[in-house]
Amino acid sequence: MRRIVRSLAAFGLALALLPTAARAQTAAPATPAVLPDSEQVALSAFALSAEGIEMNGRFVRGNSSVAAGDTLRGPLVVMSGTAEVFGVVAGNVYALWGDVVIHDGADVYGSANAYRGRVILDGGRVRGSLSATPTDAAALAPAPAPMTRARALQLSAGWTAMSVIIGLLVLVLLSSNLEATARTLEQEFGRSFFAGVLGQLGFLPLLLFICVALAVTVVGILLIPFALVAAPIALAGFVTLGWLALALVSGRAILRAQSAGSSRADALRALTAGVVLLMLPWVIVSLITGTGTVAALAKLVAIAITWVAATAGLGAAVLSKAGTRQKRAPGASAPKLQGWQTPTPVAGVAAARRPIPARPGAAPK
Description:
The chain contains nine helices and 13 strands. It has 365 residues and is of the alpha/beta class.
C-alpha cells in the first residue's frame, strides 16, 4: 500500500514540475545582453540600421574619404575610422569610434555626427547640425577658419608697415650705425653671410659658456637671468639692424642712389623701397593661398630669401660691431696733396684788405 502511495506522490510531483521545466527550456535561448559600447548601440544612437545604410548609402569599416569633385548620395557611415569629406555628400555623415573631418571645399547637405569621436570643420560646409555622442565639450572641435587671401594680405601689409616704421626710428636715432652696417654689406657680402651662419650656429653654445662662466662666482650667479634675457634681445637687435641695412642697400640699388652724400629723405626712400622688395615674396605667398605645389614652392622661396637676408644682415652687424666700426669705402680715401699745396689750414686766417686807389681829383681822406 505504501509503495502505491509513494508511486502516486512521485508521479504527481513530476506532473507539477513538468510545466516549470518546459518554461525553463523555452527561456534558455534568450537574446544575450547587448554590450554598452557595441555596434548596435552606436547605430541605435543615431537611429540607423546596417541594412538600411547598405541599401541607401555607404558603410565602410576603417578610414574613408569622399574625394574632391565626387558626390555621394545617401548617408556615409564609417566604423572605427575617420570620415574625411573633400567633395559633396547628399546626406548625413557618421563616424563611429572615429572623427568626421569636413575639409575646405566640401559640402554636406545633411548633418555631421560622431560617436566616440569629434566633428571637425576644416573650412567645409555642413548644412545640417553637428553632434557628437556621448556629448562632450571637446568633441565638437571646429578647426580655426583657414587663412583667407584678404587676411594674408593684411598681415603682409602690416609687417611691411611695421618694418618701415622701425627703419625710420633706426634711421633717425642710429643713422651712422645703419650706414656703417650697410657699407659692410656692400663691400663684404659673402663674408657677412658666412659670419651670420657662424653666429646662428654659435649663439646657443656661447650663451651656455657665458652662463657657466658666470656660475663660478656668487655675483655671477645673480647675473645669469639677466644674461638669459639680454642675449636674445641683443641677437634680435643685431638681426634687425642688419636686415634694415640690407633693405637700405637694396633700395639704393633700385633707385640708383649714391650711398654717400645722400640726404636723410633719400635714405628714407631707399629704405622704404628695400623693405618693400624684401617683403614682396610674402605678398606673393599671400596672393597664392592654398595647399598646392605652387603655394608650397612660393612659401619655400620666401622663407629662403628671408633667411639669407637675416643671416647676411646679422653677419654684417657682427663684423661692423653694430655699426660702430667705421670703414671707408674704396673710393672714399682722403685726396692726396699736390706739390704746390700746403697742409696748413686756412680756416680762420683773416685776409688782408687790398688798398683801393684814389680817384682822380678826389681829396685825400
